[in-house]
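ok trying again, last paste got cut off:
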Amino acid sequence: MKKVIATVTIAMLIPCLLTGCIKKAEPAKETTAQTAAETQKAEDTAAQSETAAPAVETQAPEAVTEAQEAAAAAATEAEEAAAAAVTEAEVAGTESDASDYVVPQKGTGKVVVYNWGEYIDPDVLDQFEEETGIEVVYEEFETNEIMYPKVAAGAANYDLICPSDYMIAKMIDNDMLQPINYDHIPNYSNIDETYIEQSRGFDPENKYSIPYCWGTVGILYNTSMIEEGDTVDSWEILWDEKYKDNILMQDSVRDAFMVTEKLLGYDVNTVDEEELKACTDKLIEQKPLVQAYVIDQVRDKMIGGEAALGVIYSGEAIYTARENEDLEYVIPKEGTNVWIDSWVIPKGAQNVENAEMFLNFLCRGDIAYKNFDYITYSTPNKAARELIEDEDIKNSTVAFPTAEMLENSDVYTYIGEDGDALYAKYWDKVKSS
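nice, full thing came through this time. structure:
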């Protein structure tokens, strides 16, 4: 549930309400029928020639020889014509497959999916299995950093994975992904061009990924637990001693450092060691005030009133507001991270055709809406947005923030192996302090 381009054009981060439509071309039936007729005619000619040949055996030897030679020539000509007709049919069929691909409605076997925890409506998985006959083998992970080494080591054969933007860039850089055949995914046209363009920051040619969800990182706070006179509009409140043991931080290296990078005025993708040392010191300073470093658990803890403040992803904030009316979400004035999660097909996937069918299914407007309604993470699917009937959600600035709200926000970039090692080094220092 997270995050990437070096700089963000804010206009690109505001979803467009456009409609997408798909029109499949009909197969080249006329060409196929014509070719079949020509093939049959050639075969009939050959058969007639072979039938005529024995009839001349009672004639003079010279006539017999001439008749046999004529029959043989006719048969050869007919065979060549038939072969040519078959070749023409194969060519026509190949051209038709390339331009008139029809997505299979039924399949066999399975598709192995690796996704974030609680990041899809379970009914969607059941519906896909019912409609296609393909079994979905589904596994979950908590962070990009947990997912990556498992995939890199080949510990399991996945057909589809849903990493965040910067991690997709890393996987591309390490030749771990295979290009997606978008001809097999016509519902891809439902993805808003805004997010396709944004994806170029981590997938420059849009070859390897299909946007699934996007959002921001902010502060969720319980209005009944915030002291009178305190305003929650800055990351600085997470260092306020009056909220000791009432603060939840993300147990994620990039997100934890992002909070201090924004607070101290640094780039969220900095690899300057002195800046990272300063961020580390700031996190160590905060640590005695932190109740826990959590990921998905921040949602349940905040709903249950177990903490006053928590760093959370925007999609989770929408859900928590439904469950506890005292909870509110804010993007701090210093800015935040804007992230995008996308589907990719890893190299070595065993069920590519099934993966393509699953991707096309997920890009359907009704299915994308069903997922949005269940997980409450902002959807890049314009057809799904048009299906939103709840005006509060449709106009929610948590789900769809304004350009002004995102003014100081950035996306994560892949910082390279050396950068990863540097962040890991200082994150270990924070956790062990």
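cool. The chain is about 45% helix and 10% strand. Residues 2-65, 81-99 have pLDDT under 50 and may be disordered.
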